[in-house]
Amino acid sequence: MSARTVDKIATGIIMAVAGFIVLILLGLLGYILIRGVGHISWHFLTSAPESIRAGGGIGPQLFNSVFLLVLTLIITVPLGIGAGIYMSEYAKPNRMTSFIRLVVEVLSSFPSIIVGLFGLLILVNKFGFGFSLFSGALALTIFNLPLMVRITEQGLRGVPLQQKEASFALGISKWKTIRSVLLPIATPVILSGTILAAGRIFGEAAALLFTAGMSSPRLDFTDWNPFDARSPLNPFRPAETLAVHIWKINSEGLAPDATQIAAGASAVLIIMVLVFNLGARALGRYMHNKFTAAK
Amino acid sequence: MERSVNMERSYNKRQEAKPHIAEEWVGKIYTLICIAFLVITIFSMVYFVASKGLSTFIVNGVNAFDLLTGLKWNPDIDVPSFGALPFIFGSFSTSILAAIIAAPLGFCAAVFIVELAPKFGRTFLQPVIELLAGIPSVVYGFVGLSVIVPLFRDLFPGQGIGIAAGALVLSVMILPTITTIATDALSELPAGLKEGSYALGATRWQTIYRVVLPTTMPQQMTGIVLGIARAFGEALAVQMVIGNAPHIPHSLFESTSTLTSAITLSMGNTAMGSVQNNVLWSLALILMLMTFVFVFVIRFLEGRKKL
């Protein structure tokens, strides 16, 4: 076989594989959406789940997912940006820094179930937070911090050195430079990275099984006092999120329409993740155009 | 008038008492606290998981060698036996099989994006693959359970659950990791290398196979190891399709378990501090040690980058 024929065959194979991957994704998305979207209704999105009868919804789970996401971001963002600033601006290039880098790398490759187990041991049992949204948010914070640090570092490193030097030349202190020169320029990168991280938080389940718990108490959506046990805003109540709910009804669901509920919930989850992904892209592009002269 | 002078003076005084230095310290201390929190968290994580995991051997007197090589997992009878080899075997076989499926696909996708059709690849295929990375693992598990398992049940003898279904689900999950790193490696390659090869009369495939692939090999391996690491630690998607029987299967289509699926299933049903519970922490410890191994393999491979 001549080299040219081999080249043609190889090119064909590579093309076919690329097409195959696109087919997998389209099939995956199409399957979930087609099977699930039909089941989505206002009733499905707002009503409470039924354990043995058909017709249950995912209302509390959806609320828990969103609330947990907000709680997690409130804790993760300041911590992650702070640590990212340290790694990019304050850390001196020495052994200590490369050691911290290694630690962050190890943390980012820890399986999420290990983070969940650690949460169970320390947050739930030792600190006594119990199975609660707060424990879940802290576990997700641990899980997402390395990503947040990496995003912040990436954003800060993308700032042109001249901007920093110009600020120093004006006699502005380092911290002030970071806050009012570097961070605003790095915001598009940090923001779109954070939205992607939010998508990851939204779909995470393994770290939550043993921290936020697998049960959802009956919520009273008219009670907005965060200190009441039945209030949806109480951060110290157990909360099953959407992703955990999908897992649970697939492994031990007793309702006759468990598969449809799983399909509907998966579709909701996928749509949310798609919104996060596309939102991050669009926002990044918009802010890039707005903040820079590039057209 | 006098008052405003006084105010100005006190303002000046305040300026002197609070120079830039104070502000500098705020920043330094704040960022230091953040990074310290991160470092302390990971150290306590390693410490607590290790101490819990080791207590199986120290407090409960289970033989570590028996745990690692035992074939029988029977924690609930009077004389319980804790052989975790089926779980270890399950974890390794599913994640390595997943990498074997995903690695060629990822490499081909990267070649397509960088070499064959950069415009279409960068604007369509790459975002599509990144989207795969964003899909939550429970959704992969659900699709695996409702598509792959019934398909395998029809095509092959057995229930359809098992290593093959787990590996297939995992391979789609780790495809983005492998592809992204392969794409980066290919596009970082200096153009001179390829042009030299073309100038010698080599075809595109010869160039890819003889020049591009060997030069980027360490990075390709990094991607594959990262993929294996991710597959190794994945819990729920695998647990949903693998069947969860605690023994080494005779075929790829027979129910078995992994480390993560065993932990997921039993952790909630055992009492803290019992030997049945501690042994699950030992499984978590094995998982954690494997993470360290993966990180160091990746570091080693990155050190061997040829460019």
From TrEMBL, chain A:
**Which biological process, per GO, is one annotated for this protein?**
phosphate ion transmembrane transport
**Where does it primarily localize?**
membrane
- Positions of transmembrane segments: 12-34, 66-87, 99-123, 129-147, 181-202, 261-280
Its Gene Ontology cellular component terms are: plasma membrane
Keyword Transport annotated: yes
PANTHER family per the UniProt record, alphabetical: ABC TRANSPORTER PERMEASE PROTEIN YQGI-RELATED (PTHR43470:SF4), PHOSPHATE TRANSPORT SYSTEM PERMEASE PROTEIN PSTA-RELATED (PTHR43470)
Family per similarity comment: Belongs to the binding-protein-dependent transport system permease family. CysTW subfamily.
Q: Where is the ABC transmembrane type-1 domain?
A: 62-280
MF terms in GO: phosphate transmembrane transporter activity
Subcellular location, in the record's words?
Cell membrane
Q: Which UniProt keywords apply?
A: Cell membrane, Membrane, Transmembrane, Transmembrane helix, Transport
| Membrane topology, record value | Multi-pass membrane protein
Protein name, please?
Phosphate transport system permease protein PstA
Q: Which InterPro entries does the annotation name?
A: MetI-like, MetI-like_sf, Phosphate_PstA
Q: Note the coiled coil stretches, chain numbering.
A: none
Q: Which domain of life is it from?
A: Bacteria
UniProtKB/TrEMBL annotation, chain B:
GO terms under biological process: phosphate ion transport
CDD domains attached here?
TM_PBP2
Q: Could you identify this protein by its name?
A: Phosphate transport system permease protein
> What PROSITE patterns does the record tag this protein with?
ABC_TM1 (PS50928)
Q: Which UniProt keywords apply?
A: Cell membrane, Membrane, Phosphate transport, Transmembrane, Transmembrane helix, Transport
One CC-aspect GO term: plasma membrane
Give the GO molecular function terms: phosphate transmembrane transporter activity
- Domain ABC transmembrane type-1: from-to ranges: 88-298
